[in-house]
Amino acid sequence: MKKRLLLAAIGSAFLTLAPAGSWAQAAPKAPLKYGKYGCTASKYRGGMVEYTPRGSFTISPDGTYFYSGFEKPSKGKFSVDKDGNLLFAGGYFDKGKAEKIDRPDKFFLVFPTIPDNRWTCAYVGK
């Protein structure tokens, strides 16, 4: 009898949670925010994580970006794939990808000439 009650409770819990899980997965993706994204590199060193600012990039609705990590900004183009990732062409980020992560308006950025493997970039405003 106790076994049946336990199985009924577990089954009921799954039925209760299933629609909520399905609904959460069906939620629309957040639209891309145009504007400035600040970037930071993180490196594990001596038992601690060290964060180093790496400048910022600005994306525009016309498909261009500017990287402001140098004395003279670097300009290129970007596109957005079906998953919301940014794909860069030209400029400092040439052949790079900013992969959307589970936090709103945040990306992991990798590109061929990157000095420290991967940067974390987050929206900071217009």
UniProtKB/TrEMBL annotation:
Lineage: Bacteria, Pseudomonadati, Bacteroidota, Cytophagia, Cytophagales
Leader sequence segment: 1-26
Protein name, per record: Uncharacterized protein
KW Signal (keyword) present: yes
Organism encoding this protein: Hymenobacter armeniacus
Keywords noted in UniProt: Signal
